[in-house]
Amino acid sequence: MKKSKVSLAALVIALMLPILAQSQDSNFGNWLIYIGNKKLDQKWDIHTEVQYRNYNAIGDLEQLLIRTGLGYSFNESKNNLLLGYGYILSENYIGISDEKVSVNEHRIFQQFTSKQVIGGVKLNHRYRFEQRFVENDFKMRLRYFLGLNIPINKTEKGDYKYYVSAYNEIFLHTKSSVFDRNRVYAGIGYTINANIRIEAGYMNQFFESSSRDQLNIISFIRF
Q: Once rounded to an integer, what is the mean pLDDT over residues 43-49?
């Protein structure tokens, strides 16, 4: 089992290297992320999420994102359907100047997530369809997320406190110029208890002709 985990981790890193190499000329930013889920019963839950994104280490707001939604789990909680709403405030620089313009977006989205375990490695698939109301414009977008969680450092109780996390997410428009962006992430996480874990890692986000780097600090809470 250990050999399969190492091989899978090596494969993920090898696949990521060509993409990460594109980030050499990009700017470095910081994302602080909170993700929470409140169980209503065995099937229903409420999703909450806040992301505070900065162009630089901190203090130069790029985007504030707030999401919430109602989810329904089935197949022993391995699958989840969610209907959600998001509000996004973006602070975009005008050209190469130091001036910014604020852009407000309201977003409705539907998503399906599916979880798998292969040789102790946890896989998470997420399919999301977004309807975006950006100021006076309307857009739609498709997203596919593939995440891996590889546990390490087994304790005497048989559980794992530390884990390696990696994901790739691609964004596609429904109209011309289909490709929007792609995100690649790798990090390490720590499980505090059954309901709380924290994670820190590096993410590269690249577009058609540019790329950006982020340091992500994430908290996951179930209550």
A: 97
